[in-house]
Structures are given as C-alpha cells and as structure tokens.
Amino acid sequence: MSTDKVPSLRHQVRVKVGLIGDAQVGKTSLMVKYVQNVFDEEYTQTLGVHYLERKVVLGSTDVIFSIMDLGGQREFINMLPLVSEGAVAIVFLFDLTRPETLNSIKEWYRQARGFNETAISILVGTKYDLFVEMDSKYQEEVSRTAMKYAQVMKSPLIFSSTQSSINVQKIFKVVIAKAFNLTLKVPEYKQIGEPLLIYKSLGPTRPPSPNKRQVHTPPPSS
C-alpha cells in the first residue's frame, strides 16, 4: 500500500477591493506598497484604473486580492462602476495634510454607494508621517472630523503612511476580518496623535449575506 500522503485540498477565493479618493492622496502608492512592498517617491498619476493582485494564505484558503485604483480626477468618474461594482470592500482615501480631500469623501461615498450598497467601507487617512509633524490643534480637528465621517459611513478608520510603512498591511487585514467575520487580534489605536486604527467599534460587526458580495467564507483550516 502506498504511504504517500494525499495532497491537501486548497480553496481559492477572490476579494475585489476598490481604492477611491481625490487625486494625489496616495491610492496607487498604497496599492504598490501592499502588493510589491515598494515605495516610489515620484508621483505617478493614475490615468483611469490601475490594477494589481496579491495572494494571502488564510488557513486552507488562498485569498486573492484584486485591487483596483481609480484615478482621482473627475474625468474618470465614469469608470467608478468598474471599481465599485462587485467589490467586497471599498477603501476611501484622503490626505491627512489636505482637509479638503476628507471633505470630498462625502461625494465619493455617495456615488460609490450608488453602484454597490453592500461593500464594506474602510476610511483611510494617508501621509501620517507628515501629518504627525503638523500643529497639534490641526491634528485634533482632522482626527475628530475623520472619526465623525467613519461613524456615519459605518467604516473602520485607519491612519497610514506608505513611506513609513505604517498600517499598510493592517488595512487589508481589517478587510479580511470584516469580509469573513473573523476575529482580528491587532491592537487598536484611538488616541489623537497616534496612527489611528479603530475597527472594533466602527464598521460592520457581521457582514451581509456572502452571496450579495460575491465572496464565500473560506472553510476553517484543518
């Protein structure tokens, strides 16, 4: 009798994630940093939609992130359905050093929700490495406003820095936890002045029916 082990069966699930926000908030930089672990200080404007994939092993399941970054210029708004429709999560990004980009989230959120009502929303403030050097009063004002936005959006709130590798990986860990209703053991940061990471009290506690978001819960690993 052969003693060869039966190869373990692996499952694969695709998780589409859209990155949306104003121009130059760092959407492409975040995506490239997460997928390729590279940060390029030279800004490259996204013309239309930029697309990358990354595989994450979750137990006996390979989670394939299909990440789509929409150019922030208004002439690309007609491509918003391409990024939003069928997405498991939509990450709304704003530049912590430019408060007008946070104000723009209202309209991005309204339009994206028109194409996808069930996607998990994640609100991400970028360029934390520059933000933390700014006036403390400004930091408090922006942080509190972002918290209010996140509450209205029912969205986790994460401050990140692509250049300093702050909370980049954790954004997508939160996406997985929310998408599959898993417990995430990453510590939260809630104090103003810290790189905010609030996901337990903000965002959905239990996801909608998986079929609505075109994703199936991976089986537990043996």
The gist of it:
The protein is of the alpha/beta class.
What attributes does this structure have?
Rossmann fold; 7 helices; globular; 222 residues; 7 strands; alpha/beta; GTP binding; nucleotide-binding; Small_GTP-bd; disordered C terminus
What is the CATH third-level topology name?
Rossmann fold
CATH class: Alpha Beta
Distance linking N and C termini: 25 Å
Radius of gyration (CA) equals 18 Å
**What strand line-up does the widest sheet have?**
2-3-1-4-5-6-7
Structural class from helices and strands?
alpha/beta
Report on the biggest sheet. 7 strands, mixed
CATH superfamily: P-loop containing nucleotide triphosphate hydrolases
Parts with pLDDT < 50 across at least 5 consecutive residues: 206-222
Give the second-level CATH assignment, the architecture. Answer: 3-Layer(aba) Sandwich
Give the overall shape, derived from the CA principal axes: globular
- How many domains, in number, for the residues? 1
Treating each run of at least 4 consecutive H or I residues as one helix, how many helices? 7
User: Approximately how much beta-strand content do the residues carry?
Assistant: 15-25%
Mean pLDDT: 85
Helix content: 25-40%
Secondary-structure element pattern, one letter each: EHEEHEHHEHHEHE
Count of strand segments: 7
Protein name: Protein TEM1
Region (Disordered): 203-222
Keywords: Nucleotide-binding
Pfam family, one: Ras
